[in-house]
């Protein structure tokens, strides 16, 4: 599978997938399809701009999708509206992009017999109690809490239906919270760093006790390739790094790098429907595919991100 179409390849996770894939697999012929909304940034791909083909197109447009998919060996589908706050303000956009856009892609993938890998989220499972040891597995029932997670749940179901009804050669991964370079400043870690660099206290929703399972974006990339290369068609695999931290603990890790007190933040009104806790059981990917995360030193990774964003703020 040399010819690879990456949808949403100018966004945070998609661009990191492109960069690491080309570093480790220089034989790949990668095409990026991206509508370049506020979340897409061509600067994320600057170091490989001469090594990829860029298509400025929208997955909501079937004609654009067909032209992009035809002739590819593999589609890795990252493109999505993904910010929960925005989904509460404009849920229709999330349905159009995440549901209709995915339907367009899998229809084209069936037409041209292209291998398809769908990127999803652990948020489709809803949330878990803060005081439990439960974790999401591939058998956990879907229970989405927001328009964003509901639209991703719908797109997952479409992929499964196309596998069974039309012979789509597809796999799905549901991943936990990603962090790393090039993340949009609306997200928790870069938002926290940006506030501190501006001399402001970073905000934390509600009590700050909501827990997320954090994974470095490069580990996500390798998890995807493990599924693409070794996974069973029609199967779903959960990707996580067993790195649960509350939002306040994440803030504390960032604040520590700046030499600031752990209470240097301000509480803000909680988000509507804010999920309590996410936790991934990635044993299926580990046991069946041999995948394991390798970038597991969270504090060191936060240190590197603080250095990166501090440098960028001075340029």
Mean pLDDT: 96
Structural class by secondary-structure content:
alpha/beta
Largest sheet: 7 strands, parallel
Q: Span between N and C termini?
A: 39 Å
Percentage beta strand: 15-25%
Instruction: Give the SSE string.
Output: EHEEHEHHEHEEHEEHEEHEHH
Number of domains: 2
Poorly predicted regions are none
CATH-derived topology of the largest domain: Rossmann fold
**CATH architectural arrangement of the largest domain:** 3-Layer(aba) Sandwich
The gyration radius over C-alpha positions equals 19 Å
Number of helices: 10
Helix proportion range: 40-55%
Overview of the molecule:
With 315 residues, the chain is α/β, with parallel strands linked by helices. It folds into two domains: 3-180 and 215-243 and 279-296, NAD(P)-binding Rossmann-like Domain (Rossmann fold); 188-209 and 244-276 and 304-314, UDP-galactose 4-epimerase, domain 1 (Alpha-Beta Complex). 40% of the residues lie in helices and 17% in strands. It has ten helices and twelve strands. The protein has helices spanning 12-24, 62-69, 84-89, 91-111, 147-166, 188-197, 217-230, 247-257, 283-289, 298-314, and strands spanning 3-7, 29-34, 53-56, 74-77, 115-121, 170-175, 177-179, 203-205, 211-216, 236-239, 244-246, 266-268. The strands form three sheets. A seven-stranded parallel β-sheet has the order 3-2-1-4-5-6-10, with helices on both faces. A three-stranded mixed β-sheet has the order 7-9-11. A two-stranded parallel ribbon has the order 8-12. Strand 1, helix 1 (12-24) and strand 2 form a beta-alpha-beta unit. The longest helix is centred in the N-terminal third of the chain and has 21 residues, at 91-111. It is globular and about 55 Å long. The N and C termini lie far apart (39 Å).
